[in-house]
Amino acid sequence: MMATCSTIAQTFFSDGFVCPITVMSEPKANDYRRQLEKAEQRYGTCDEFVQCLRRYPNLLLPFVDEITRNAEITDIIAEILGPNLLVLDAPFFIKEPKSPSFVSWHQDLHYWGLETEDEVTAWVALSSAKKESGCMRFLAGSHNQLVNHRDTFDTDNLLTRGQEVVTKVDENKATDGELLSGQMSIHHGRIFHASHPNNTTERRIGIAIRYIPTHARQVPKGNMSAMLVRGEDTYHNFNLCNPPSGVMERRDVQQWSRIAGARNTVMMDR
Questions:
Q1: Taking a C-beta distance cutoff of 8 angstroms, is the pair 89, 55 a contact?
Q2: If 0-12 CB within 10 Å is exposed, 13-18 middle and 19+ buried, where does residue 217 land?
Q3: Which of 59, 62, 147, 200 is deepest in the core (most CB within 10 A)?
Q4: So what's the pLDDT on residue 39?
Q5: Where are the domains of the chain?
Q6: For residues 97 and 201, is the Cβ–Cβ distance under 8 A?
Q7: What Å distances lie between residue 254 and 11, 44, 52, 184, 261, CA to CA?
């Protein structure tokens, strides 16, 4: 029997993460993957496209915006954060076959420029994500504290600053968040999480959708934007984004450039 939204929320609050959760059929996920790879083939040499895969792809790729609004996802997120939801970002995390790319142990909220801890990341798999291909790893219960981080700027680290917790993590206590294509994990912004390199011959593709409630606030002098994907925004704490009008449309690229630049400033200043 599938877990109810309330049961998932209870596990989220106690452990800091939940997985796996099926949110779409495998054929639907495969169709989204085909759209991504079609765009990669057409725009792969375009700097804005390459950069947008890691910052606000939902502003330039309509299928990503569609995924962020998927009711199978937002029903669960609304059970945790409330009915009015913004998407702060929705970057791809892609590990190519036999890639050394990894993600160090870290906590998201340490760097995001938010004054709230009400945040949920939905990591949606568009390919299988197994231990061998570098699936997400979580340390249950670690969301109850916020610890110091250090920046490494490791070139193989998929994180912006190569940030990592200064606390030693016992890998034997971590849980592998293995997913099939069309499944997701959700995790708290304070949970310790990481992932190893992809040692398989297949791509590992996921989208990390950052949901926040509309009442969330950003740090003073922040100028970040977000996309309203459910309910209404009566707080106006973030500049609201316009949904994409097509794939890599010029006016959308102009919006993306302005919004991504403001977010990068916040991320690198913290």
A1: yes
A2: middle
A3: 59
A4: 98
A5: 5-269
A6: yes
A7: 41, 18, 12, 31, 11
| 56, 113, 114, 237 from 221: Cα distances, Å | 21, 10, 11, 11
A 10 A CB-CB count for 268 gives 11
For residue 233 the two structure tokens come to 């925004």
Mean pLDDT of the chain: 92
Would the pTM count as exceeding 0.85? yes
Are 14 and 142 in contact by the 8 Å Cβ rule? The answer is: no
**CA pair distance 136, 48, nearest whole angstrom:** 27
Quick check: 1 and 125 in contact, CB under 8 A? no
pLDDT, tens only, 141-174: 989 887 788 888 888 888 777 788 888 888 899 9
Q: Two tokens at 146? A: 């916020």
| Residue 257, C-beta contacts closer than 8 angstroms, at least 6 positions apart | 48
CATH class in words for 5-269? mainly beta
Q: What token pair was written down for 268?
A: 């690198």
| Selection from 267, 243, 224, 257 nearest residue 49 by Cα | 257
Q: What residue type is 207 in one-letter code?
A: I
Tell me phi and psi for residue 20, to 5 degrees.
-85, 155
